[in-house]
Amino acid sequence: MNLPYAEPYKIKMVEAIKRSTKNQRLQWIKEANYNLFNLTSDQVFIDLLTDSGTGAMSDHQWAEMMIGDESYAGSSSYFKLKNTVQRLTGFTYFLPTHQGRAAENVLFSALVKAGDVVPGNSHFDTTKGHIEFRQAKAIDCTIDEAFDTSNLHPFKGNVNLNKLETVFKTYPKETIPFCIVTITCNSSGGQPVAMENIKAVSALCKKYGILLIFDSARFAENAYFIKKREAAYRNKTIKEIAKEFFSYGDGMTMSSKKDGLVNMGGFIALNDEEIYKKATTFNIMFEGFITYGGMNGRDMGALAVGLDEATEFDYLESRVEQVAYLGQKLVEYGVPVQKPFGGHAIFLDANKFVPNIPREEYRAQALAIELYIVGGIRGVEIGTILADRDPKTRQNRYPDLELVRLAIPRRVYSNNHMEYVAVALKNIYETRQEAKHGYKIIEEAPIMRHFTVKLEKI
Ligand SMILES: *Cc1c(COP(=O)(O)O)cnc(C)c1O
Questions:
Q1: pTM of whole model > 0.70?
Q2: Helix (H) or strand (E) holding 284
Q3: If you measure from the C-alpha of residue 103 to the centroid of ligand 1, how many angstroms do you get, rounded to a whole number?
């Protein structure tokens, strides 16, 4: 019998989480206007709202917190981080920022202008936001397989090269500041991009003289999938794989709240000196001096260690396999989930789970609420409420998929917690025929309504 994988760490400090009764949760979710964002953290038993900034730091990272250098300029913590980023990515220039969207804000201020187009694979919300805010357009060139929840394609984050080349042929070169490849692709469910695809995208970008930038929040998880799924990389280390894919690009933005294994932070890394100089000005304006960019010295030190830990195979195996463990349990229990499983989250398919609840009554939200009531578990709706209304007609936009995302924080929960989540969902699934009604909106903001929407039970 093969030995199973096990976490390559043991626990030195624990944080209590509170159990509650179903009656308490019924009361709390009602008081929260059936919006899971309105719950306080102590009303939640297992919090799967996001994997962003929710991970656990190691003893080595906490040790760095104690020796952080808080000098305004030239802090030694900055040099620790810069050297680590250069060593892991191969990029020459480095700028710290306070989180991922801040890195986008700084870099795009230097590169994107009104009327531009930015092709990529399912741009993340904030990436798209920072492009559209500058009156430019994000063009999605993801492969079609990504939009079918039962298609087992191993790299559903891949860019469709024909779609990308069409963009390059349709728009003048001066209006395409860069192509952005998100690894792993968050918006298509934490799905990876193959090395082969990255190489081909890079070659196409070079042919047309377009820069290639990586949105790298989960780059280490992407490297893990390449090692597991692309034969040529089976014997390479995660660090070798990451360095190779970065070598095909011109720069990267990073949300360190994911694969940086810290609670807050971000950065930009680049090869081009001119772009670096331009970005430096915006970094000083928006973030802070170039040797801290909105980060504490101690946080830069912890990030330097976190990046090294996140690119170790044993850590990644236990991380990605824990997500798959939850997915596999759900499959065993017959619960409909998106496949293949993503690197950071499992997505419940609410169209198949609760088809009796009308779409107009927000079935994915109804399922997320039920999971909270039954188990004290907080996920998040990725469906009609998130999709907002059409800006012109003000009608609901019904996306093809109604999903509930269960994002797993890094190094935080045990497989017993995953088992608990799976059983809660099994119990809901067994009584799904009884669920016939959902919710109606009683108050909402004109955009990004999901954060503040108020709902009432029908
Ligand atoms: C989280 C994320 C961002 C934004 O980063 P923040 O740190 O939340 O500002 C950008 N791109 C991707 C792919 C992300 O997952």
A1: yes
A2: helix 273-286
A3: 9
